[in-house]
Amino acid sequence: MKRISQIHNAAEEPRVLCIIQDITSAKTVNERLTFNLPASTALSKLYEDVAHKAGYVNGSFDLAWGNTQDMAPLDHSGELSLLNSGFEPGGKKNFLQLTDKDGEQPQIASVTDSSGMDDSSQERLIGPLPRDGTVGCSGDYSSSSYSYSSILNKSETGYVGLVNQAMTCYLNSLLQTLFMTPEFRNALYNWEFEESEEDPVTSIPYQLQRLFVLLQTSKKRAIETTDVTRSFGWDSSEAWQQHDIQELCRVMFDALEQKWKQTEQADLINQLYQGKLKDYVRCLECGYESWRIDTYLDIPLVIRPFGASQAYGSVEEALQAFVQPETLDGPNQYFCERCKKKCDARKGLRFLHFPYLLTLQLKRFDFDYTTMHRIKLNDRMTFPEELDMSPFIDVEDEKSPQTESCTDSGAENEGSCHSDQMSNDFSTDDCVDEGICLDSTSSTERVLKPKNLLTFELFSVMVHSGSAAGGHYYACIKSFSDGQWCSFNDQHVSKITQDDIRKTYGGSSGSRGYYSSAFASSTNAYMLIYRLKDPSRNAKYLAVDDLPEHIKTLVLKEKQSEEQEKRQREIERNTCKIKLFCVHPVKMMMESKLEVHKDKTLREATEMAYKLMEMEGVVSLDCCRLVKYDEFHEYLERSYEGEEDTPMGLLLGGVKSSYMFDLLLETRRPEQVFQPYKPGEVMVKVHVVDLKTETIASPISVRAYLNQTITEFKQLIAQATGLCAETMRVVLERCYNDLRLLYVPNKTLKAEGFFRSNKVFVESSELTDHEVAFADSLLWKLLDRHGNTIRLLVLLPEQSPGTNRTLCQKVGGDSDGQEGDRNDSQKSSDTSDFEHIESPNHDVDSNSSLHVAADSRELENRIRTPAGSGAGNSSDPDNHFTCEERSDSEVNNDRSTSSVDSDILSSSHSSDTLCNADSGPIQLANGLDSHSITSSRRSKAHEGKKETWDTAEEDSGTDSEYDDNGKSKAEAQYLYFRAEPCSQDDVSLDTQKCLVIHVDKRITLAAFKQNLEPYVGVASTQFKVFRVYANNQEFESVRLNETLSSFSDDNKITIRLGRALKKGEYRVKVYQLLVNEPEPCKFLVDTVFAKGMTVRQSKEELLPQLKEQTKLDLSIDRVRLRKKTWKNPGTVFLDYHVYEEDISISSNWEVFLEVLDGNIHFKMKSMSQLAVLTRRWNPATMKLGPFQEVILESSGVEELKEKLSEISGIPLDNLDFAKGRGTFPCDISVLEIHQDLDWNPKVSTLNVWPLYICDDGAVVLYRDSTEEPLELSEDERNELMKKESSRLLKTGHRVSYSPRKEKALKIYLDGGPAKDSGHD
């Protein structure tokens, strides 16, 4: 029976579904291991099961949560169950990641260990296909002798990878190649760093030494290269720049040569990598030869010759083409100094000797002159494992010239010499070179020696995968110790075979045709490095015991550093990091992060939190405790009574990267006792409402259970507040959306919609208000007003006729139209004002021994208040109202406060109460709870009212302040409004000119203006309302039928005197268009256009205004109006056009006024015509002419060219034109115009691509094609470039002299680019 009972218990036990991803290798990252375990399973058993199924040795890997960025591992030896460790049962997926332990890959279980594994675990050892196109990581690479996809860890390959900082794969590939070059590594080790002479941080050789030591001795799978790049003078941005690996090789070698001056390694780069070749020209008539000696560090080999349809098939073929001479004949004849005339000649290159380490660069990046883009050539090019270079060495021709002219680019012999003399000179020059010099021996030896000594073996293939726009580098390198090839792909190092090397030849399986490159694999060899096969010279890698003493010291230092890092990492892995909050008695709400070791007890953690929150000297430690807290819901989840000695790891559910809860350091007064918080309780913030004084008290906290009934809940509140439970009304506010009266006695809190944290309003009085329907009651009206009243700061105009008088008269009382519903005593009492709300007496604290502690009330009150009301504020209250007035069309975010955001903006005020904890009247700014308006509240008070603000709807005009019957719209629906002077505490505002307005945000702008009339002193039609946004920008609010729903507490409003718009009127900004001025757009005036008005009528009203305000006296027939789009002139408006019929118009519209010269105006007669602004470009003088307007009857290109020919005198056949780029006036550097514009597009009409000239105002440049550009010297060009740059920057146009400018690769020997701003 006991056995059967156990079986039944096991069946009933919840199970935990674990999905584990192995991220220790690129070949296993796509694998998933699935376990469905009992919830009581210990963590140690989970590790055993994972090790068994994955085929790893238990203890050689870590498991960490996979749904967060922080990868803190689970405890290996932990006996804590999965359920208590944070795993979720019941079919929910728990994602974990299998990671390296201490930077080392997991150890593969031996055959005997894995013999008992099932089939699925055996398959586990054969990984999925890794990243495509990566040698050493490509799943399609396999051979009969080696399973490429088998899992290899560092102990099997013996090598350490390099971490890719972002796009530093090219650097990693080169560094691994240098490390695997014995001669370079050993020479670098022999160099000794003198700390007294140089900063180790900026020493490139020293940082390379450190990196090589770590690559040779580290136990990590991969190490960082940040110290090396820092020594280059690079910042973090360089990690995001990908460069060419050959360019890096050259720049790094240059930097090392500079750093190694005056040392034994001064000539190391030349000794290992430098070769010499002869660049010659030989006359075919007399045999005279002129030549120059050049040095090289690598040989660039062409993949496909220019203009050819077929690529070279092999490196040998490309080398042969490299030394193949070309014949100079015809117009390319060479002037022979001996013949004293131009003769046919042969020009070419000859290798004189090769370096010890031969570098071949396969030039896969080319330029396509058809598409004008860089391309990558993916053609197949084979390369041998052993390369015989003897066929390419310079052997004297049978017809050796009698005399030669020789110059050595890096040598001392110059002038005329015989060939044997040249050989002797080379003998002297190259005797110390470890490269292969063939010129110091007899001619017989010269023929034989290359055959014996010029065999090179391949040991490094640097591969590029991708396109010319970007890609990935990695290296395939052969070890000289055992001949094993490995793929060094950033942090992943794996073994490969010769078959894998052959796959880097590139190309496809098809024939070598012109288009074969387009369909070939983009992964192919880019750089090849060979080493000369010479047993007497070939070095071996130095073992650790054979390293120089200073390197042994460095090894020890790095080992200690790594051990320290490992210990620190172990501490981090056992540290719980969790958010900590505290209501500080002085500093209010504080937030920090508590970092505590998992073995520390709750008592020790409380002491740490006590010090972290700086409570010493403020509250004693005995008056503090840590409780589980939900900051989002402001909910105290549970307390930990009796668990003071429990480890924090157990209380928090283990070490995790993040927790679903927080901790709160709770405080109490010495005479108080902490209230226990039990799991499963819900927290309720209770606001007491007094209908007689119309006050709403600060919240107190009550904890209840969801299964309690409303009757039991009322009894609980009665104990906490002292109110009568029999007459109590409880109103629940749910999600700021509605108010629900809880009136069903036996209904549970859960059924009523209570959650973890709730807010209720309670009222218990003898008034008859409870007898009426809740939606008609005074309680509902009070709560409704409480949720919708906001506080606005209104700045009155400088000269407001009735300001001083009305402020004194009006501020004392309020204009609450709802007072008709109240009794006379309420009407006459000032305390009935909604703003004059006082808190209930603090004697309620005497009930603190009941279900609520006073400190909890203080907690809940303080948690709400620190957030302030700044979230919705347009600017800081300390800012003066010195605002910049701008139109909506000048700013992109002018609609940012439309109705869609009103809920967010209006909920910025964090207070839940209309009063402070202190007694006495309060300012509404600290008391109003501006929750968003909801449909359930709105429907009763303001049915059908629009909630948008300053948005363009179907009626594009403004709204009249009066309806069709002439009745004020403000009278249609009254909503709360109260004004008072600004507080004297706010010294930043002029209290004589500033009002604090408390208003229901459902009020319309029309009603709001009507209520402001007594304070402004003029009718609402005679002043304008401007809303002040961030940066003190002002925008006029003109939509009178829209509400203030997008406003929130402490938003600012500026009132300006001036006629408000009537229905059908639009405020318009008028700018003058000055096409030939440096600043072509000049603001003139603000004016008003009306619907139905003609353009001529608007001009008649505008011109007197211009004369009065700007002193411009203009004739109506010499000006025209045209559309303004940003700074671009657009459609020309004709006099007979009617606004809103022929011309669409909107609020805050902008137009150009243009003063006309000549008879242009009379040529524009219909909308079918096209007005184009033209400008002549003069290449001979590098100057642009003034703008001239031409009127076209059609959109044909031929008509445009005829008009341009007519005004310029340029023959049609010689006339070129191009459309200007950018915004008017389409400024462009004179250095770019001639080449960069799209001259003479092949189109017949203007309204098609690439012109798209469909409206007036387009800019067209034209030129005479026979006019030659001005020849500029380099100095003149640089000077002109500076002038153009300065001119264009002043006009706000970007200067660009290249369509694509790449950042140059540089290594800074002085520590960084800051010392030389001209580097880039």
From TrEMBL:
Species this protein is from: Gouania willdenowi (Blunt-snouted clingfish)
Regions of compositional bias (Basic and acidic residues) in chain numbering: 833-845, 854-863, 877-893
Composition bias type Polar residues, residue spans: 107-119, 402-421
Annotated ranges, domain USP: 160-533
Tree of life domain: Eukaryota
PROSITE patterns linked: USP_1, USP_2, USP_3
Ranges of Acidic residues composition bias in the record: 950-963
Pfam families in the record: Ubiquitin_2, Ubiquitin_USP47_N, UCH, USP47_C
Organism ancestry: Eukaryota, Metazoa, Chordata, Craniata, Vertebrata
Gene Ontology BP, a term: protein deubiquitination
Protein name: Ubiquitin carboxyl-terminal hydrolase 47
Region (Disordered): 102-129, 397-421, 804-966
Low complexity: compositionally biased ranges: 896-912
Record-level Gene Ontology MF annotations: cysteine-type deubiquitinase activity
Gene name, Swiss-Prot/TrEMBL: usp47
Gene3D superfamilies: Cysteine proteinases
Cross-referenced PANTHER family: UBIQUITIN CARBOXYL-TERMINAL HYDROLASE, UBIQUITIN CARBOXYL-TERMINAL HYDROLASE 47
Gene Ontology cellular component terms for the protein in this record: cytosol; nucleus
